[in-house]
Amino acid sequence: xxxxxxxxxxxxxxxxxxxxxxxxxxxxxxxxxxxxxxxxxxxxxxxxxxxxxxxxxxxxxxxxxx
Length: 66
Fold this sequence. Notes:
By secondary structure, the protein is mostly beta strands. The chain has one domain. It has no helices and five strands. The protein has strands at about 10-15, 25-30, 40-45, 55, 60. The protein has a five-stranded antiparallel sheet, with no helix packed on it. Strand 3 (about 40-45) and strand 4 form a beta hairpin. It is globular, with a radius of gyration of 12 Å. The N and C termini lie far apart (about 30 Å).
């Protein structure tokens, strides 16, 4: 299995561009999805929402550790 840029439990934020509607803030990576073709995708969750989002790797950036 290929290495992914982000790991489960890692804190990330969303890179803003255009009319993207996800709220800003801290997201936690739940897991990397199996890559069949196209960009690597991740299941992420914002602590203010009660559902998961699937985001492309290019839309995520790592947050500094506290």
